[in-house]
Design goal:
Two copies of one chain form a homodimer.
Chain A (H helix, E strand, L loop, with lengths): L3 H17 L5 H7 L6 H13 L3 E2 L8 E2 L1 H11 L7 H12 L5 H16 L2 E5 L8 E10 L2 E8 L4 E7 L6 H15 L4 H19 L3 H12 L9 E4 L13 H13 L15 E5 L11 E10 L2 E11 L4 H23 L2
Antiparallel strand pairs in A: 1-2, 3-7, 3-10, 4-5, 5-6, 8-9, 9-10
The structure holds a DNA duplex.
DNA sequence: TGTTAGCACTCGGTATGCATGAGTGCTAAT
DNA sequence: ATTAGCACTCATGCATACCGAGTGCTAACA
């Protein structure tokens, strides 16, 4: 365990370094600090903190820098939450005041405001379809043997997919099929559609329709890879990354930006939302080696009491933890409230 | 007018510089060139070319670099189109072989393959809704006085919008309204919907429906800003920008990347597709001062004979014009063919 | 007259040496 | 336990010198 004085010093170093991005030395610290100590004393303490692995020294005779372990300790034990500045609160209130109905739009706005407020890169997971209940199914032929299949959930999500349509299927059969689908699928949670009802519907179809095989293949296509979309993640403010001194060098920044642009693995950057609550992943705590110099701060948002997604911020490990955690938490709460109001708990 | 020798020299300088990104000197040129000339002679010619404004000299006693005017001359007069390498042709054939039905998906793939092939940033305009004909209109209540309005065009585009629904509108009225809309709007080009049919439908509604005012407001909302989506541009390979030596410096790269990320003005980067054909905008020829060190090479693609959108590539003015123009042209042609086949001329 | 060899000159880039200053660790005094 | 003092380290900035790639110019040459 650390002495109180060590804690104060560690806090001071973290907070100073987060601001300046420069190694902090004993002299500067001794002036700035609430408990006045001579530089020499502070040096001794810093030396101890370094041996504990909480500080790093870029080179002999330079100031100290928090190690990842140091940040971890700071976050776990030293952090004191500051009040949100009024400007931030107002900005957020404005965003969620405008009663948006479309969830995607709300998510997108959230992503934008998060990165704007913090000047980091925001990650906002689009809520999965799984919990939505099917409200309507539609199948619209657009000629050339193609059709658009549309799926609407009670969360207002619209999923559309193009399917091939065998020419032999008549318009009547199509209508019958759509009716069947609607009557059987209405209010069924998307997650259950496939496993639970699939065979049942298929059987009914085989009875009711002549070209049921084609019909089934359509259904198949429609439901196939819903998994593809249900982990979509909105990214905002990727270029904010370039304002951070640690990414001043293009060769440092490029891999991370490429990773963000490619986006296929972004879901895995955020912790699974099922766990709920806030998460802070510092440096090597991230699964991707690419992000071993980055921190991800995330929180889950919910409809009512059930968590449905995560929002998060990505930045260098040298991050303004107090402020960002506060904001992420607050935004998650605001988003939850807005979604809950819009969609009902 | 330039002498033949000057042309050869200018060509050689452009082609060398495009590859190496280093100012090219007389010695290197004299070795590499097809017509063997001594460095001294070349120096004289280069001096002349500089006075003509076709070459720049970064500083006294460094090699020459093509000026923007030099690139322009090269593109207009000296460019000799090389055959596409087999790898490129194969890659493209593979992309368009897979008979994609969704236009958006096709566009997105095009954007990706373009940036992959060229290592520049690709811009692909999504074809406007305007030319599509309405195939189906649907209005699906999702509870809480909200509904999802869906619009399907014969190009397979699905537009969905959330609308508020006055509680007073009954289910029957809703059905009546949707039927009315469908019968009146079917096969009408989206561009005409608003101007031509709006009032007419409104009048019919006022007769047929009790709460026609609410109905109209719904219709209003649905059609409101279709303009919002019809100029969407897909961007691919933004991080490729960072591989270019001219953007090695973050402070150079950031403004451009921010511009690309923000994206609200991307439509204006590409020339209006109505003009058809290929366009090359070099440096200051671009409207945005931000892009005054960049070149945009673009071509239009069509359904049948009518152009419907543009594709383009963005890179530094030091660009491999021959290769890129060839690729853009070829991709535009391939995309046109694919879309035409999928949607019919 | 067009071409080329030769030469002086320019200038960016790299290496070197040196002074500066911020910062440390250690020791001895308080 | 704290701190003043001191020797030491190392990044940074600066002046200097040097090298090499490249030029412009002039004079010689075909």
């Amino acid at each position: 365990m650390l002495t109180d004085r060590q804690k104060i010093i560690l806090s001071a170093i973290v907070e100073d370094y987060v601001q300046s991005a420069e190694p902090v030395g004993s002299r500067a610290l001794s002036k700035q600090m609430r408990i006045p100590l001579s530089p020499a004393t502070i040096r001794n303490e810093m030396s101890d903190l370094e041996q504990l692995g909480l500080l790093d020294q870029p080179h002999t005779s330079s100031g100290r820098v928090p190690s990842q372990k140091g940040y971890r300790f700071y976050v776990d034990n030293l952090l004191q939450t500051t009040a949100l500045d009024q400007k931030t609160v107002v900005a957020l209130r404005d965003v969620y005041a405008q009663r948006i109905v479309e969830v995607e739009r709300m998510i997108q706005q959230t992503s934008q405001i998060l990165s704007e407020l913090t000047q980091y890169t925001s990650l906002v997971q689009v809520p999965t379809l799984r919990e939505g209940k099917i409200k309507h199914v539609e199948l619209i032929p657009i000629g050339n043997g193609a059709a658009v299949a549309i799926l609407v959930t009670d969360t207002g999500h619209v999923e559309n997919r193009h399917v091939k349509l065998d020419e032999q299927i008549s318009a009547d059969e199509l209508v019958a099929m759509v009716n069947l689908l609607n009557s059987r699928l209405k209010d069924v949670p998307v997650s259950r559609v496939k496993s639970h009802l699939y065979r049942e519907i298929a059987r009914e179809m085989s009875v009711a329709l002549e070209h049921y095989e084609d019909a089934i293949s359509v259904l198949d296509e429609l439901l196939k890879d819903n998994g593809k979309t249900d982990d979509k993640v909105f990214v905002g403010g990727t270029t904010n990354m370039l304002t951070q001194p640690e990414f001043r060098d293009v060769e440092k920044a490029r891999p991370v930006l490429e990773f963000l642009e490619h986006g296929s693995q972004l879901q895995k950057v955020l912790p699974r939302f099922e766990s709920g609550g806030m998460h802070v992943r510092i440096g090597v705590e991230n699964d991707f080696p690419l992000l071993h110099d980055c921190t991800v701060i995330s929180a889950t948002y919910s409809i009512g009491q059930t968590p449905i997604g995560s929002i998060g911020l990505l930045g260098p490990t040298r991050m303004d933890y107090a402020r960002v955690m506060r904001i992420v938490e607050y935004v998650a709460k605001s988003l939850s409230r807005a979604i809950t109001e819009a969609k009902g708990g």
